[in-house]
């Protein structure tokens, strides 16, 4: 049914393409498709052959074989960010000693969180807020009766809250979060995605208890990441109750912060079992503002600009 | 004067009026100077010589009056009177300007003016409250972000990372005395200090645990050579060499695997050190004797 094009007459067993030939020059779609498939198969065969050869060489050399090449990943190839924090950096240490979280880290204040939503929240958002309140110790959920945040904030400060968390909702699903550190701390605006409530978790355990969880913060390397890390750390009380065996994790990967809540148990000194309890969600930082919430006149420390991130796939901010 | 009746007959009843909007129940008039918004004989601005309206521009209300003498100059036909911002004063102004006009027009003007002031007040109140900002989402961008998030999730290997972190914390002792397995840290410490004497016993123990199949081989060799050489030093080295010999095939077999288990890892590490130092000497020595 298919006749080989004249280029292949001289090499029937093995396909050899003349150098100037390109599959896309064949006008007939069916034949072009078939030629392309053959080309792909050919390439695959070559690839497998190269791999086999390499493996043979490696086995032949035995111990003297060169070490295996590490495959390139986005994390390996990440563009070096000049704001990456060096652990011994004095300037950073000084800044952190005197910034808005220093009160918390010097054990002067205990966290108290107020969780609310945007106007007219739907069931999913309300349930999410309630579950968040069980995860974060000393958190209170209040119904937002169309109040302006700017008016809410002084009242919160008066009642001794340290954090204001507003879950924004769109189309019956939470999609944004504003996290405002209260006395006059930074305000972070996040995009929330992939929210899984407790009901939807597979193989979950019982509800979280009242014990304060431990906190794990992974991969917050740059200055911005550091301030994010401190922001999250200050949500939870200083002394985790190890009796409760609960751990809240904020893991940063490629600018996405994954939140998970687990209960762990040490089976022996080398193995630990974890069971996911509470809600899980993903955050992506959209803007960090210096003072409390003020969208019009606030001073923005950092704003997500898409065209900056589109330039290079291996550049991340957190 | 214009022929109002004729005009109404034509546009209202028989022929076409471009401002008329017909619905099932009612007719509306889209003319901007219409006072009620309905298409009626008395509300039609085209079919009434004596006509007045109220219109508002940028928060300012004006009274428009039609001067029929200028019907030939439509651009100059309507006269504008600016109404005061005070509601009562404005009503008086309307009364003054429309003093001998038909009741209908006066009444409807005042009604319209009231409605306009009410909605202006509402606008002013709303601008003081929170304004909802609608941000458009780009489908392509959202899809891209979603994909990136999935890939990031896969790359993150969260469970592994969390487990590793917890084990690290256990090792560093942040949990204090709650968990009763300090053996791991203890072993590590010992290993770092004394390598030869400690690791021998450890290696033999591990051998027993893992090399069940190869145990017979080891035992036979031991019997052969331990009979010949009774010195403690040689025996120790023989043990090491035997372990080396039988570890070699095992090591090459497991080369592809990551040394996950701490025990294997430890053995390999210790094995490498001893191999370089003492492998060559004891073997020929024992065979000679």
Tell me the series of helices and strands of chain A, N- to C-terminal. Answer: HHHEHEHEEEEHEEEEEH
Average pLDDT confidence of chain B is: 75
Individual helix count of chain B: 11
Poorly predicted sequence stretches spanning 5 or more consecutive residues of chain A: 8-13
What portion of the residues of chain A fall into strands of 2 or more residues? 25-35%
Q: What global shape of chain B is seen?
A: rod-shaped
Question: How many strand elements of chain B?
Answer: 5
List unreliable stretches of 5+ residues of chain B. Answer: 204-289
Main beta-sheet annotation of chain A: 11 strands, mixed
Helical content class of chain A = 25-40%
User: Cα-atom Rg of chain A, whole angstroms?
Assistant: 28 Å
Structure write-up:
The complex is a heterodimer of chains A (318) and B (289). Chain A has 318 residues and is α+β, with helices and mostly antiparallel strands. In chain A, strands 1, 2, 3, 4, 5, 6, 7, 8, 9, 10 and 11 form an eleven-stranded mixed β-sheet that branches. The longest helix of chain A has 33 residues. Chain A is built from seven helices and eleven strands. Chain A starts with 28 loop residues before the first helix and ends in a 7-residue tail after the last helix. Chain B is 58% helix and 8% strand. The C terminus of chain B is likely disordered. Chain B contains eleven helices and five strands. In chain B, the strands form two sheets. In chain B, strands 3-4-5 form a three-stranded antiparallel β-sheet. With 289 residues, chain B is mainly alpha-helical. Chain B is rod-shaped, with a radius of gyration of 51 Å. In chain B, helix 2 runs antiparallel to helix 3 and helix 8 runs antiparallel to helix 9. At the A-B interface, strand 6, strand 7 and strand 8 of A face helix 4, helix 5 and helix 6 of B. Chain A: One of its GO terms (biological process) is maturation of 5.8S rRNA. Chain A: It is found in: Nucleus, Nucleolus. Chain A: May be required for ribosome biogenesis. Chain A: Keywords: Ribosome biogenesis, rRNA processing. Chain A: GO terms for molecular function: rRNA primary transcript binding. Chain B: One of its GO terms (biological process) is maturation of 5.8S rRNA.
């Amino acid at each position: 049914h298919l006749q080989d094009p004249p280029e292949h007459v001289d090499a029937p067993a093995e396909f050899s393409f003349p150098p100037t030939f390109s599959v896309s020059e064949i006008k007939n779609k069916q034949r072009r498709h078939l030629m392309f498939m053959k080309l792909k198969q050919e390439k695959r065969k070559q690839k497998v052959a190269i791999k086999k050869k390499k493996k043979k060489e490696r086995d032949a050399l035995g111990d003297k074989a060169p070490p295996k090449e590490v495959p390139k990943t986005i994390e390996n190839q990440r563009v070096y960010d000049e704001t990456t924090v060096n652990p011994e950096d004095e300037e950073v240490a000084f800044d952190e000693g005197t910034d808005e979280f220093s009160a918390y880290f010097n054990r002067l204040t205990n966290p108290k969180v107020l969780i609310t939503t945007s106007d007219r929240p739907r069931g999913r958002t309300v349930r999410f807020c309630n579950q968040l309140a069980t995860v974060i110790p000393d958190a209170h959920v209040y119904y937002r009766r169309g109040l302006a945040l700017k008016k809410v904030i002084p009242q919160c400060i008066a009642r001794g809250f340290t954090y204001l968390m507003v879950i924004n909702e769109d189309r019956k699903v939470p999609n944004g979060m504003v996290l405002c550190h209260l006395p006059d701390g930074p305000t972070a605006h996040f995009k929330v995605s992939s929210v899984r409530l407790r009901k939807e978790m597979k193989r979950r355990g019982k509800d979280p208890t009242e014990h304060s969880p431990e906190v794990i913060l992974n991969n917050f390397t740059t200055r911005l990441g550091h301030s994010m890390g401190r922001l999250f750390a200050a949500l939870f009380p200083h002394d985790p109750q190890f009796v409760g065996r609960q751990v809240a994790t904020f893991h940063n990967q490629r600018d996405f912060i994954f939140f998970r809540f687990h209960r762990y148990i040490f089976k022996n000194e080398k193995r630990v079992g974890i069971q996911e309890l509470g809600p899980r969600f993903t955050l992506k930082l959209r803007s960090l503002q210096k003072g409390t919430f003020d969208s019009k006149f606030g001073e923005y420390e950092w704003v997500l600009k898409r065209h900056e991130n589109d330039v290079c796939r291996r550049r991340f901010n957190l | 004067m214009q022929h109002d009746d004729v005009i109404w007959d034509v546009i209202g009843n028989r022929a076409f009026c471009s401002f008329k909007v017909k619905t099932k129940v009612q007719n509306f008039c889209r003319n901007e100077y219409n006072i009620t918004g309905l298409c009626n004989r008395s509300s039609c601005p085209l079919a009434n010589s004596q006509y007045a309206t109220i219109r508002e521009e940028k928060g300012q209300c004006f009274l428009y009056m039609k001067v029929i003498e200028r019907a030939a100059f439509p651009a100059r036909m309507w006269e504008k009177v600016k109404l005061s911002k005070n509601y009562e004063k404005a009503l008086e102004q309307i009364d003054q300007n429309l003093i001998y006009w038909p009741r209908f027009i006066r009444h409807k003007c005042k009604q319209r003016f009231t409605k306009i002031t009410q909605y202006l007040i509402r606008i002013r109140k709303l601008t003081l409250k929170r304004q909802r900002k609608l941000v458009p989402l780009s489908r392509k961008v959202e899809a891209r972000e979603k994909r990136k998030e999935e890939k990031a999730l896969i790359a993150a290997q969260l469970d592994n990372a969390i487990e590793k972190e917890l084990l690290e914390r256990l090792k560093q002792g942040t949990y204090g005395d709650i968990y009763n397995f300090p053996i791991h840290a203890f072993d590590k410490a010992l290993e770092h200090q004394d390598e030869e004497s400690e690791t021998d016993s450890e290696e033999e123990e591990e051998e027993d645990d893992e090399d069940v199949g190869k145990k017979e081989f080891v035992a036979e060799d031991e019997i052969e050579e331990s009979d010949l050489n009774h010195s403690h030093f040689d025996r120790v080295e023989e043990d090491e060499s035997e372990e080396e010999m039988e570890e070699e095939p095992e090591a090459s077999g497991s080369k592809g695997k990551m040394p996950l288990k701490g025990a294997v890892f430890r053995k390999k590490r210790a094995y490498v050190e001893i191999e370089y130092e003492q492998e060559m000497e004891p073997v020929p020595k024992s065979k000679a004797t």
